[in-house]
Amino acid sequence: MSSVVNTLVEMGFSKQHAEIAVKKTGSNDVQVAMDWLLSHEEQLDNLASEVPPEPAPSDETEKTDATDLKEHSPSPTASQDSSSAEAKSFRCDDCGKLFRTQDEVEFHAVKSGHGNFSESTEEKKPLSEEEKKEQLAKIEAKLRQRRLEREAREKEEALMREKIRIKSGKELQEAKRRQEELEMKKLMEQKRKEKEEEKLAKQRIREKIEQDKIARKAKFGGVATPEPATTPASPPPAPPPGLRRPRPASRSG
Ligand SMILES: [Zn+2]
What we know:
Layout: H1 3-10, H2 15-25, H3 30-39, H4 41-50, H5 66-72, H6 79-83, E1 89-92, E2 98-99, H7 102-112, E3 117-120, H8 129-220, H9 241-244
Antiparallel strand pairs: 1-2, 1-3
Zinc ion (ZN) binds at residues 92, 94-95, 97, 108, 112, 114.
């Protein structure tokens, strides 16, 4: 910066105006510049707007990537990302995920087992609306899945309980049936025994009668005691008279 500009600024002119005056007059003389400023006061505001603003000190170090920059960031706003080398996030070198805080990194490391992390100048962008929706949909799907699983589990458990109930009911029925069967068998057995005893009793009575009969025979000396004919024997049917007639002997032959 020239000393003329400094002097003019000290005199109360704006730095911008002083620089314009020096440029316009091309002189190192404070007096000349001052004269010019005083005579051009009205035009100065217009002139000031014409003069391009001082170029910001551009980062010379990044000039090597000039071709890259041209390719990737044609818009002037994109240069903001690379202007600062400050680490804005952490990157997992194993899967490429970005994390805003050390806590997130630690959480990811524990969860995934990934162990290689590096600082990144890339800023982790907040989720876009679409990404938020997607994330929400994922969470909802997960919740839905979990609910379905729980319902299925509950259904299965209920079914199992019902099965057990039915089974125990069936077992009870079965036990009852077996008991009835057993009782029926016992009854049958008892009846069979009763019949057997009855049969034996009858036989004993018959034997007794028989013995009595023999005893009476022996007492009365062969006199047949009149016995009631329970089954009267029917006499054999008489042969038809024709068959009785003797055959006539025929000598002729
Ligand atoms: Zn990872």
